[in-house]
Amino acid sequence: MELAAFGECLTNSSCLIFQTVGGLKIGMLLFLVASGLTLIFGVLGVINFAHGSFYMLGAYFAYTTLAVTDSFTLAVIAGALGAGVVGILFERGFISRVYQSNVLVQLLVCYAFILILDDLVILIWGEEFLSSLGAPEVFRVPPLFVAGAVVPPFHLFLIGASIAVALGLWLIMARTRFGKIVRAAAQNPQMVSALGINTTLIYAGVFALGSLLAGLGGALAASERSISSGMGFSIVIESFIVTVIGGMGSIAGAFVAAILIGLARSFGAIGFPLFTDGLMFMVMCLVLILRPQGLFGRAES
Amino acid sequence: MRRSGPIRDMIFGLGVFVLLALLYVLVDDAFVHDIIIKTCIFSIFALSLNLLIGYLGLVAFGHAAFFAAGAYVFGLFMQSEYVGPDSAWAIPFGVLLAMVGSAVLAAAIGAICIRAKAIYFSFLTLAFQMILYSAILAAVPITGGDQGLMGGFPKPVFLGIDLAEASHMYMFCAALAIIAALIMRQVVESPFGYVLRMLRDNPDRAAFLGLKVKLYQWITFVLAGTLASLAGVLQSLLDIGAFPEWAFWAKSAEPLFMILLGGMQTFLGPVLGAFIFEVLNAVVTAHTRYYGLVLGAVILFFALGLRRGLGDYIWQLVSDRREASGRADA
Amino acid sequence: MLRLENVAKAFGGVIATDDVSLAFAPGSLSAIIGPNGAGKTTIFNLISGKLRPDSGRILFDGENIAGLDETEIVRRGIGRAFQVASIFPSLTVEESLMAAVQSHRRQTLRMAERFRHSNARQRAGEIIDMTGLGAVARDLSANLSHGDQKLLDIALALALEPRLLLLDEPTAGMGPEERWQMIERVRALWQAEHMTLVFIEHDMDIVFEIAQSIRVLCYGAVLAEGTAEEIRANPDVIEAYLGAPAEDAEVAP
Amino acid sequence: MNRRQFVAGAAAVGTAITGFPAIANAQASGPIKLGIPTILSGRVAQLGISSTNAVQMVVDAFNANGGLDGRPVDLLIRDTKAKPDEAARVTRDFVNSDQVDVVFNCEASSASFAVQEVVREAGTLCLHNVSETSSLSADPAIRSPNSFRFARQGIHDAVGSARYAAGIAKEKGLKKWMSVSPDYAYGRDNTDLFFKLLNQFGGDDIEVVGNGWPKLFQPDYTEVITQILQRRPDAVYSALWGGDLVSFIDQANLYGMFGSIEFFTINLADYTTMSALRDLPEGLHSGTRYISSFPDIEANRSFDTAYVERFDDHPTNWSWECKVGIEFLLAAMTEAGTADGAQVADALRGMTRPSIIGVGPDNSVTMRGDDQTLINYAVGWGTTVAEEPFVTNIQAADWADIVEHETAWKQELGYI
To answer: Does 1.10.3470 match the CATH number of domain A3-290?
Structure first.
């Protein structure tokens, strides 16, 4: 514990800006991944343990696309879409067969998929880790200096892009027919099915959207994180923490929880650098014990 | 008059022990012996988890916490100043200490976890396991952190049993696994065990029969955790140490695999699963480094193809056949 | 024997039970009727401890049991069966009843003996004979017919030798003939076991035929109380039922 | 009677009792078997692959020359998935089932301790080739008489690093220091030792103003980077490695961190790491893990060339460690004229041979007899440049200095 340093940081504007922007960036990238996870759980009721693998695939697809086209934009789009397509295949080919099974079987199918994808990635891209994509040309500029703090413009872009995605997701859910059906399906699948709506299509669509978000998160994160097989491991655990804290199925909850986790990481690194991980699991425990539906989840009836 | 259940089970257990002993003598292959030892260890681990999953219907994700707790308590005790090469009482006492310690841990964690329902229970067990994992990594002066308990420990001879001797270790693991299995078999076939099935099927109804649901869940959680720690102790004896990886969540996935592979409806299903898992691991690892690919495919085959564990599948076949012949006779 | 005093329960502003006061005499056979959503099942849930009343008292043998949990209440002698048969699909009929008997005898914490060798088997056999489940005693509960599942549900409650038995629509989902068989069996059990029995029922013919006294619930409140003749003649009841005929003509799920 | 003889004797008794031959049937003919437990899958698969590649090259040449009196060397390479219990199982399997002559350990950190316990009990000759944990060979409670260390020893590097850093610190006036190292035994030991020695060599001017401990394999280092920029140290020391180091440098680059802070990173100068960086910043200080220009000798350059030719990739630090290990082993077997563990071990103790990485007399390295640890390998630091040879101005550490401080360190810890 370094509480003195922690207090000092809270009263120091440069430190506040430093850690807030950094924490927001970590949090928003995490949100992209976690929102997909929580969406899939909310609608399909499936804990997609393999979600981190789509994050990884997004990164690898983006890497290859960048190598071929030299366009960062195309790379990110390819990463997201590629993960989305694999998501549909995974849902149709595997997950849809175990909707009726117990959670254990669903979990093991997901775990099998993790094992297979981690090895496939090695077969295709090799066992060496790959470099990050690097920020696109426009952002390779000297950082901004704000009140004594250093802020890379690229981080502002990442935060902005993620917030835009969050807004878009909210619009889709609140305003479109698809969003209404999805919300209805989350609450009462029989009803939606009875209304003659093709739930198969809805489920596949939701899974694709969820995977796409993970892929997008992976592709954007790959701009500054090295890429390797197994990189989905840590992100999926963090996404679970976010999902649980925010309320399983709640996108708004995931948004708030992701920011909380991001800030906890950045400020925790100053206040209690050695126990940030353990702390996160403790918060998860507390939420599960005191408010299992999470901060924003609906209480079970 | 048929022989009563417990006696029949004990005779069966004794028979298995004799068979395993014969196997040791007849098949002179350390590779095979090692697979049997690990199957024994993981049978205890998987059977104990199946008490929760198969009989009680609680999907616990954090079972490795107790495996690791057993291994660390035992390992730390054996490395402590109280134990020397001639402390004949050390190993039996260490086993007991590890199991009691893990029981206390399971009692505390269980009391909290069973308050949560369904998937929240699973997440909570996972979270506690990860807290333990973080704690093991952080407590470097005691646990050695990420390097585990280094430097080994003595294995003092007790009751003529020298666990440094391969054959003794083999028989010891086999005997303990069989005893643990017999205990668990007795539990699931007892009135208590039928309550577990009722809680799995319909906990609300069970409450209206006057059964305190949480009490039975808690007792089973503690029992399962205690037995899992025995598996951890044996693993610690085998590897002469203890490692933080054993408290990581991926370790909890291993007995889940075994239960899936072997089946959760048949009592011995997880044992079969443990055996398949160990053979698969040993054989595949020896031939390819794409172990994940193979294991993943096997899991998908069981989860999507057979849709049940091998033990359940065989049991289904046998009982179908029996039923068919019964009908033919009639 | 059982007395509800000013019991109220609301779910997030929706009033399910509104200041209900009811009394049931020892050894009586009573029915609770009322249109859908009248709060009949809620009353059972409150009595049996599934729900906790917001206010009011529930006196059983003079003791206030409001707020106790379901296991405590069962132990005091109140058993119940459910509208949708609530059973243990993976156990056989005999196993289910043996386990229920063991629970009643408080033998379920025993780990050292064998369930199969339990002396609960004999008592379970008696209950099986009593409820007429003999032909399916060795069948898995999941494989029973709908009617047998309802019977098993009741049999489970009987295993606890309750002094008060609450049956939530014992004939739900049955054909006309089956209904009468069922209700006759229920009446026979009531007579044989000398217990107090309260049941919820939709079929008016059945209610008027067998119930000694009838309570009519509407919108969470007690609308009328009396014998069959009194209820039949009560204008409020006629109003309530004729006012909502569609709800009464309920088709079983 | 030494341990090995004892074990052999016990095995003979075991054979007599059980009626089948146990572990000790020394095969005087047939191939010499080397069991290699290593990591071939997952995110550090590179470790096992680049290690075993180097071993394969040496063994191929040895076998082509007729092996040991006609006995070829057979490599049994098995994946342990970086799990200690798997490493133990694989090693037991090598010892008991395959009856290997030598366990050639290419396992990292904690799994190496698991391997160590198996060979300690079995008495099989063992070479540790990649685990850099100091205690493995230095702590008398952990080291084993049948185990030899060919991997870098943490204290050796620390002396070299601290000497170099103290020099630069004096020259450039670097007073405030921070660190960013992975939060596990290697990262912590390495960093603590570095600062301890830096304080010793650099005088009272050196002040450590903070430590960042990201987790191993952590994907994002933003919070550590902002923390560093926040405290404005003059210099930062890092024991990050591989993909983690690459992520850190990429992310720190966005903040323009390397413009204002001198960065000392012990693990950068390894080809796979440097080539994975999109922009290798100029002027970083790095330890020489493995580069073909240090030591700048023909043997080293041609090894790199041959390796690239065969595997289409540069060798790693792990490659040279394993290369030296296998060369010593084969030389010792040749000298002893047998693959018998005890005799080979005797030949290994104190052996000195020329090596691609040698900085001793005639570019030799030595297997020190008393603690069975390799010395006189290249320890150096230099500054990075964007193009080949990637690192320039390399300053080699002085081994007399290293050994002197190593001894002091051992005394302090009560190892000797």
So the answer is: yes
